[in-house]
Batch of 2 targets.
Target 1
Amino acid sequence: MSAYLRMGELGQCLDIFQFGPDIMATVWVLFIFLNFDLLLKTGQCAETSGQVLSITPNSQEQVEILKNVSIHYQTVLWQPVSSDYIKEQTQVHLYVPANSSQTVNDLLHRHSITYEVMLSNADEIIEMQMRNDSTDPRSGATFYQRYHTLEDIYDWINRTAKDYPNTVKVILVGSSHEKRPLYALKLSLNNRPNKKAMWIDCGIHAREWISPAFCLFFVHYSLLFYNQNQAMTQILDNMDVYVLPVMNPDGYKYTWTNDRMWRKNRFPKKGTPCIGVDLNRNFDANWCTRGASDYPCSEIYCGAFPESEPESQAVANFLRSHKDSIQIYLSIHSYSQMLLMPYSCTMDEAENHSELYEMVKQAAENIRRYYRNIYTYGPGAKTIYLAPGGSDDWAHMLGIKYSFTFELQDRGRYGFLLPPSHIQGACNEALTAVKTIALKVMEKSQASTSSRQTV
Ligand SMILES: [Zn+2]
């Protein structure tokens, strides 16, 4: 993979694509023979595109240099999310925009820090993600295989509610800092009394575009395959589903218009140049302890107090007022392919740890069986690192015992810039996990109801 990516990079250096395809192939082969090693070593060419580098520091000194690069140079850490977590022998994914590429590359070379270019053409991929061929007559069929602007998503919400007036209801759960509405869709496929419910939110973190794409896909799939797919029918017969496609609309909008790498909401902190709170550090679950930051410029800034942000408060209020019916809480993120369960805010085990563990394990096994893709699983704090103030932990503490966070595709090949051609695959995998967990929860509640009846 690394050699392949390097070749792409070298092709860009040569501007090889100005030749015809035959000549290009010849030049390509000659070029590899003559120059590959040399250029691999020097890596000298002025970058015209942002890059994503994968770097594994192998000494404490290299750790410090990387921390310094990620803080003081114009770069964006993709993994880990904050420089505090950079450590020896652990992969760092760093986005380096074109204009700071030369400086950063030189600095890494100077300190003999080796790196692999994961993406040499980030700008091109960003452009590809934003392409919307709405004039394409096939666009209807491929709607769920593309990314959409916030306006398109609002239109889609209205259209879906209009198309399914008896089964889909739009609920305004709150609004964002910049006064954008937070709409959740309620899917209720029948009128059985005392139905339980599942909540799914997407797009807490603005740059994780695959997440809202999944929420849209999930609603579409549920409505289309009810009475067609057995698992989906069983689930929707037994529970309502609330879907919040974009929990952080201001941030999401900003990733389309200003900064594709934006993560937080758009709260302007008075007296500082810093914008944004990490909504997934803003819930009241060991709020702002180790693993979050009270520094407003940090990517994991926890906010002024728990639920200080209108977006997290809106979701918390809704869950509080529906906690008796909502049995399952799911929050969709990317990337790294993980199925996480509480807790992330402490190393302690949840009281129903083994039950939850069994569910994520089964979900990961099903994904592997059907799609041959590997997802790791376990409690957040032990699987990644401490992350207090998360929505899943808070929901669990509220009493929604089946609470999970999914990290969708991929493992870093494209990271946040997952190409549209991968949306379908990522959504199918997440859907498999949702189905596995929902069916397990139903099985458990039916078993407990019937055991109560026999007693
Ligand atoms: Zn996230």
Note: The radius of gyration is 23 Å.
Target 2
Amino acid sequence: MRNIIWLVALVVSLAFAGTALATDGAETFKAKCAACHGKAGEGMKGMAPALKGNAFVKGTAADVKKTFLEGRAGAAKKYKEFPIEMPKNPMADADADSLVKFLQGDLQK
Ligand code: HEC
């Protein structure tokens, strides 16, 4: 009987392992992005542009992902009103995908 209980516990934990591995996009945003882009992605004067309502963010997912993974500095910079550069944010691919999903989904609501 005890063996069966352990077996059930093992199967259940394996079933959830896949979802547990990727960090929630909202959590990643709070930890790595909100300090510059604002808690709700509303942007910060002199610091970083708004991500909410931003056409680039709502556009091609691969471009958004590349921007936060590789950052944007020097000649690649787009905004003069934000003198600092967008830092690199290396992270696991699954975490990057859930962050993109959050940026294009819940953050835009
Ligand atoms: C140190 C402050 C800082 C942090 C932290 C930061 N950013 Fe940025 N981000 C910027 C700045 C400044 C720009 C504008 C760069 C430019 O001039 O093109 C920017 C630009 C962007 C853009 C492009 C916006 C556009 O209109 O082209 C995206 C997307 C973005 N950031 C996402 C993120 C995400 C996601 C995170 C967290 C993983 C993050 N940023 C963390 C400062 C920051």
Note: The longest helix spans residues 2-21.
